Amino acid sequence: MSGPFTSIPRLSLLDVGTTDAERVAFAQRVVQISHDVGFFTLVDHGVDCEVVDGWFGMVEDFFALAEDVKSLIDKRHSRHFRGWERVGAELTDNRVDHREQVDVSSEHEPYSPDVEPLFLRLDGPNQWLPDEVLPGFRPVVGDLFSRLGAVADEIMALIALGLGLDESRFRTLFGARPLSFAKLIRYPPTPAGEAGVNGHHDAGFLTVLMQHGIGGLEVQNPDGDWIGVPPERGAFVINMGEMLQSMTGNYVVATTHRVIAHEERYSAAYFHGPDLRTSLAPLDLGQPFVDAVAASARHRDAGFMAKRDELLSGAAGTTSTSVPVFGQQLWNYYVRSYPDNVRAHYPGEA
Length: 350
Description:
The protein is of the alpha+beta class.
């Protein structure tokens, strides 16, 4: 790119083509955009608009429930940090986020409650309302995970190919118990001077975000300007996470973004993630990728979200360093975002 981005690129999966050469060319384009911007919108991904509308119908039905009903699955009950939370329950960069949400994750048999390291205790069950309270909610969430996971797998394969790796490289590295999670979100209008969610990087490999007709998502370019991402019916927003930034030695960047809602807004974000034990050590990429990082201060100096102890010491934003494995990355997210929940279930860790 000739300068800082001023809009978010748009890609169609139809452009993958039918030949090996066309697929490689498209994959290289995906990787270049991921290097330059870290965000793109994706159309022709195979998920019909009517399916997405059905998902959001169920999301709106959930948030329309009485608070005492939603509180049956209050996140504070879960040592795995799953369930519903009130507006203002999450912190980002040590600032309150003005959104209500329900968090769900891939479900695996939990490890022993005293397993070490601590991050392995994140694996386990979701909280679900009784079926008679909101019939069909659990199957809808399962369908969302299945379909968006397939889209994410395709993008993951293209990124590997565009980096000069075997298409299956990341999928193999994701291990035996991949842990993806999703946030189903309702944003009330954001108070002046605040944010629905404050500026941040995502912790996972990549994110598939759905905006349901109402905008508010903003992406920060290298000049510090906030670039709006208008909603488009049938389009997903794809962005790269800190896990991928670490594994590519900062060639692919996790770009800071936030949400400011000017009216009530619903969205859903699916965070594609691996086994908690997956290494985040940089892969052995070709010299052109290494040279591109060395030549760009933005990439060379790209940081990671500050950890809880760093925030308490006065740090902020993306001033930290990477960690060895994904589980520690995810654990750091929960510790800085939900310190009260951490103290309740893991005394002394927040």
